[in-house]
Specification:
Keywords: Repeat. With about 350 residues, this protein is an alpha/beta fold. It folds into 2 domains: about 5-15 and about 260-350, Alpha-Beta Plaits (2-Layer Sandwich); about 25-245, Rossmann fold (3-Layer(aba) Sandwich), CATH 3.40.50.1460. The chain has helices at about 5-15, 40-55, 70-90, 125-135, 185-200, 210-220, 250-255, 275-285, 315-320; strands spanning about 25-35, 60-65, 95-100, 100-105, 110-115, 120-125, 140-150, 165-170, 205, 225-230, 235-240, 260-270, 295-300, 305-310, 325-330. The strands form 4 sheets. A 6-stranded mixed β-sheet has the order 2-1-3-7-8-10, with helices on both faces. The protein has a 4-stranded antiparallel β-sheet with strand order 13-14-12-15.
Length: about 350
Amino acid sequence: MVLTKDIFEQTLRDAIKKREMPYYNKYAFHFRWADDDTGAERDFQSFKSMMDTCGFPNPDEWVIPLNSPIPEWEIVTKLAKIIGKVGDADGRSIIVIHYAGHGVPSSSSGELLFTNSRGKTIKAAAIIALLENSLPKDMPVDILLIFDCCGNFLARTLTPDSRLIEIITAGNKRDSIAFESTRNTSLTFELFMEVRSRARKSHLFVEVVDIVSEIRRTSPVKTPHHTSLLGIGSIRLPLGSNSAAMSNAIMGRIYPPLARYAATFSIHTSHTYDAKELEQLSSWIVNPEGDCKLTLEYVKETSSTLFIFEAPYTAFLRIQGLPGVTLLAEHEPSYPRVQQHIQPTPDHIVGTENM
């Protein structure tokens, strides 16, 4: 699927600009198995400290009993109660849900299952279905899911929405030492360390995708995976005792993303750009109104147009999952170079092939 011209240009704006959503109500929830052997209790302490740094009240904690008859039903019920509180609250809310423990893919469907030593399971999809389907579309709430377990959540086509649902998972089975029950290799601990680092530097907000980008760049064993299910952009967690009404726009100018890690990605649009339109687009890219900068690497045209960009990895994560957006590589930023206005010369044209 390719994007129309208007949607393509809006996608570029979404990639380079932080979402400005203050939160007036904050809810956090953690669950783990009673017979856990992965260090999940330590991960809960890291999660609790991270939530405290972000100004959340103490998270609700559920240690799943060994004799729980239907743990999946119980957790859905507990989350439904939190959703009920959100429905009664005034102003925008944020919910952060955290799991630590074992995760395995289902043998039949490959979906992520949370499991214990006795073979009991909770389907991650059951939690996500509750959050996607039970919330009214006009409910002002964003949701962050942190699944600190072995396994990736399968990428899905992103659905634009006024709400955000983001998922961070710890990695996959190939990350052999990333899932040892030691605190210093825990995804939760890495997230907490990154959040605490920003708070100590007097940042008042931190963007979820910026944290993921920095951990992917710096961690030798952790490659957290990020997926968005609803909305475009990323949640901005408040740090310290800031006011919910404080202007995010001001802080965005003071503290842009670190931009130490980059992505090269393509965006495919159904519109064929003429020379004047390419000149206008290139001029806008040189002076964008946002916190991230794009570099237009290449253009290929037939009856549609394929653009290749380099940008901070944060910018790519904000729009990944949208139709027509494809990651080509993640890497250290390229050396600075002069931005050129790209014209539709023969070097950029691919004969009469269809894109």
